Amino acid sequence: MKKKILALTLALALSLSLSACGGKDAPGQDADSGVPEVNAPEGGAPEDGETDAPDASAPEDGGTDSPETEAPEEINLSTFYNTLREGNIWPELMDLTTDANMKELLDSYYPGLAEIAAKQRRVYIAAMSAAVGEIALVEVENAEDVQAVEDIFQARIDYQVGDDATPGGAWYPETIEGWKTKSRIVSHGNYVMLAVGDASASAVEEFEALFA
Predict the structure, then answer these.
(1) Domain limits of the chain?
(2) pTM for the full model?
């Protein structure tokens, strides 16, 4: 009887020992595969190569890839002409461009100017032929036409001054001399100006100041 009780006790102890060993796995291992477990960070692992770093290509603050550039404001040539008249002394001038009846005179003084595509065209000539004073202002539509306008303006000066073979269109010696020494042609972008007279140098300064 004692032998049976002792054998039963040993069997029970062995069973408990085997059960305790089988219930313990090595730390960090899957109980089924025995492969070490890797814990994913909170929020889940990035998919398809994604990272938590900010996208370098995305503009900050909702901006665009390149800043917008403001288009230059168009200059009103009629307003500029009035500014020239207010700030300087000019002889009485006639407008050849706003009155349709003056078109023939404009074509005579500035041949080809009316055929050049222009956003604005203003030509003012002295009401008296003996006076030295003229202002021509043009904004061409195409930049390649700037040189053509300059050439027309120069042809106007050359005609008024004349040469040794042909008397100048300005006729009077003092008027011819004024056209020779007081004529200025200046351009900036698509804008071209001819200024003739005592205030021509000041007119050029005011013209350049428009683009400063």
Answers:
(1) 77-209
(2) 0.67
